[in-house]
Amino acid sequence: MHDRQVKRCGFVLGAVLAFGVLAGVLPAAAAAPPSGYRTITPSMAGQTVVLTGAALTIEQLVQVARYGAKVQLTAEARQRANDHYGLLLQATAEGVPVYWFNRGAGSEREVEIFHGSAMDPANKAMLEKSNLEQFRGGAAGGFPPEVMKEEIVRAMMAHRANAMTLDAPSPQLMQMLVDLINARITPIVREGGTLGEGDLSLLGNIGAAMVGAGEVYYGGVRMSAAEALQKAGLKPIQPFAADVNALTSSNAYATAKAALAVYDAQRLLEWADLSYAIDILGMNSSVTPMSLPVQSNRPFPWINYTSAKVLDMVKGSYLWNDDPKRIIQDPESMRASPQRTGATWQAWARLRDTVTIQLNSSDHNPATRTELKPTDSWQLSTPQMMKYYVKGGPLSNGKSGYILSNANWDPYPMANDLEAFNIALANLGVVVAQRIERFSNPFFTVITPGQVMTPAQMAGARYGFGGYLSADLMQEIQANIHPVSPEGNAIVATVEDLQAQTKIKTRRTEAMIDDMYRLMSIDLLTGGFWTDVRKAQDPSRQFGQAPTAALAALRKVVPTDARVPEGKNPIELAYDFIKATPASTFYRSPIAMPPGEPTPAGPTTTYLGPQQ
Amino acid sequence: MVFHTRRPRRSLAAAVIGAVFALAAAGSAAAYTPIVPAAGVRAVTLTGHDLTLDQLVEIARYGAKVQLAPEAVARARDTHGLLLEAAAEGVAVYLFNRGGGNGRENVTFTGDPTAPENKARLEANQLRAFQNGPRAGAGPEQEDEAAVRAMMAVRANTISYDAPSPQLMQGLVDLLNHRITPVVQSSTGTVGEADIGVMQAVGGALVGRGEAYLDGVRMPAADALAKAGLKPIQPFGVDNIALAWTNAYLASRAAMLAYDARSLLEWTDLVYAIDLLGMNSSITPLAAPTQLNRPEPWLNWHAARILGMLKGSYLLEADPKRIIQDPDSLRASSIRGASAWAAWSELKDAALVQINSSDHNPTVRVGLKPTDSWELSTPQMMQYYVKGGPLSGGKSGYVVSTANWDPYPLANRVEAFTIALANLDVAVLQRTFRFSNPFHTGIDPNTVLSAEVRAAAAPQGNGTTAIAVFGEVEAVMNPAPPQGIASDVQSTSDLESNTPIKIAKAQKAVDYSLQLLAHDLMTGAWWLDLRKAQDPKRDLGPAATAAWSAYRKLSPWQAPAAQRPDRPAQDIAVEFLKAQRAAAFYPALASLPSK
Asked: Quick check: A209 and A225 in contact, CB under 8 A?
């Protein structure tokens, strides 16, 4: 009887995790691991990020994921998770049906998996066995390719450790997640098979490591999970209750990748602003499009923000001096760059806000919530809702609450915001690609480099960085801007009939950001060269504090003369430079970002105000 | 609905002849859709900064008249004066005393523009430019009168920022108020960065050239002016630029898109509530505990809205046969719907800024002084400072070159909305199919309804057609490629926003989504009848009950097939959805979030 129930309980996850083995797709255990795994550099291993479940920032996530910072759960977060865990157990004792616990999952949603308290001896034994089997089975879950960046898996775990406190994990599950992060045990995770809503099999891979199954990287070295746990002084856990669900029912992979993309995109856009400032200095541009009269006539907050910032960057430069040869206006791509960058900052801010909510909320099914009472809102006292009300008892320390089936696993609006950002970025890319080319035409620059530079300077100078490569990059960007067609493959007996494809959407965002970094490095080299020309034209010219400092730093890795190391491409050097050196090194903006997009009233006023 | 008959294009030769000789007898557009002015619509006051979507639609679709606020009249007078004064003071002004595009550094005239010689030359140049208006742009003609009126209304609202002559601004108002709607071409020919060709056709009508519709009747523009008691204007200054260097066409289309999309989303919410009632769904995904665990404001707002529609219904009562959770598409529809509303909100905000600000080049700003911001007193900016004199009534300010014609973030917001809508539609499509499976409905209709009742029942949505409609949505959701085609000899014009294409795709997505929703309504309504047959005591809540009852007047639950109209049931459902706003059925929940 129990065996049958165990099979039912694990139907969905089992299907997802085991399919790889059944299909014979997964490499045998003895297969050689893929090469090219990128380990992190744990430069922040001495720091600790505190997880509250409600306040994790993208910057903190990156500290943990990319730089090895440790994590620590607050007492409040632990208490909340413990309360939820207790409520979950108490629900079974009270006979409340709980999806994916005493009821099955997916198409088995109405099948009773066990009856009575989860702590009854027979139920307890069944649940322990079931959980352990499924955690072990996680090692075979998913399909290649493996996730080849340690930072992504660490970001998944850090996000899950934070948000899991809103769900109902066992104490040992929650602690083990923290332990893996802090011991730098990073499980092998395979990304194939996730549909972008519910990264089940990937999180199942992580679950396997917790019980000593599968493989991991320990301090960047690949080995069996059992060995890594032993080396780190950790013991495999015995998962219980709804731990399979608590660990895996989440979009942690998509959220982690989106968060890292937001972080990288911010630095890209900061360079986009600074590189544009250098471009207008190189072009001897008229700055009127960014000035107050113009911006006052068009009150788009993010365009006003970008314009003010770029103006501030070139404050004190020669662009503010009289110059009878300065042309009344630049070509369109030069002039409209703040429009496109401002619009991209706006899309970025929307994505940032969405991802931050995703990091600090539950995308789990079912939703567990203690402390709510039937009198807190009109809906909660209805017969339909009271069916899922847990009155409270010994297993919950007397606490009451609700456990509800839901759709919080659907990762929207984040999935849309990723694609909206991709479009904005591509529409910025085209102005960057175009403005690079305009430097080749004296109709805009008024002079040619040969008119003002000495033969020696010209002989060593590198210019004309655009052309084939920038056009190629723009085509790569164009290839990634298209949204993924919305899918509704009705699988799992047609219960699961939606997919979000966030795996593909984040992949396109990542690719586009990287291509934009390369395009920006060409732009920076072009603008940098032309500031040299302008300096040669008039040595007394000033270029503003931030552009001057940025170009001086650039020149250390990409000299103006022919001293670029043999065999090195200056664009690659510039790319490495801007990836390694944030633009904020040279410019700290005194101009505040606009507030996020307007949003409706939050849940507190929506639900818990006067009785509705 | 989307594909309507186009008037056959005239040959190029005929078009040229028609332009040269201004043929009064030119054929009218066969599919022209005139507006039907509504009685009792109040005039809209245009201030330049607070035109709403509703007001724009009242002007465009229902013939509301417009009046200029005193502040707008004063602003136009001041900017026009500053422009003239700038030239008199020797300030270089793009597209006035300097050329445009590649001719940006060419001096076109010097000195006071009101001096006799300059004045005569400017008047002649301007009149010639206006007279050339009917030759501008590219076909096919814009056949929707409301679209042209919307464009003129937006321009009338924003032109006060951009130095029009008094006669130009008044001329625009007069055309709107006398319902003279010029014949314009629907293709801008300017790829979404200033709708020059479309607006220039309006300029033609202002000087009595080209053709126009007067109260929906096509005739020479000169005749329309005469019948309306109007005289052709004599443009001056930079009137051709003031009128035409704008994105008013795309801005107005984006605003109308936002208006239509709001109606669509309102209906999508109500039909979703009908579906939940038809499915006998568990509403736990919408409930407070669930929403508090995921504090995304739009999701929470939307869940509360749908739950409010269901308040009082049988879904809040106990039912031992109700399944613990619905299929994904039913459960997640609120999340997809909320996300579409979030994208809509951003589209609406961008459109509102666009129809209430200047997208013109150059920028003319009266009243700013060199001390108002650090950059304004620099030598570079002081080049463009107009000290003020007789032509500006003593007022000072700046006239500067800009890039405000680049219609961002609006262009991005249009595409982001289209994507969000497609990602909502897939949930709508999928949920309609789940009703065919008793595994989800919990009941086989045959166990409730007799064969006779089923035979006479109103049709459910058609799955094949719904899939085909969704395919159309998917076909238009891809963004237009960002283009940077350096199109002129010197490459000054090297950007295109392709916003008209983006808006056209979005509008199609909205149209198709309404068709898809019609199938969803047909299915959901059918299941309401079934749930009532299953248990007549069931309460469906006031909103769903009212909408269902209204729909059943057009598509009765029971009728012999021979008595049903000989036309697709989908069309009847679409007409129903178009005939009224869904919000009328849930007034207490109708208000949308405000900033």
From this structure: yes
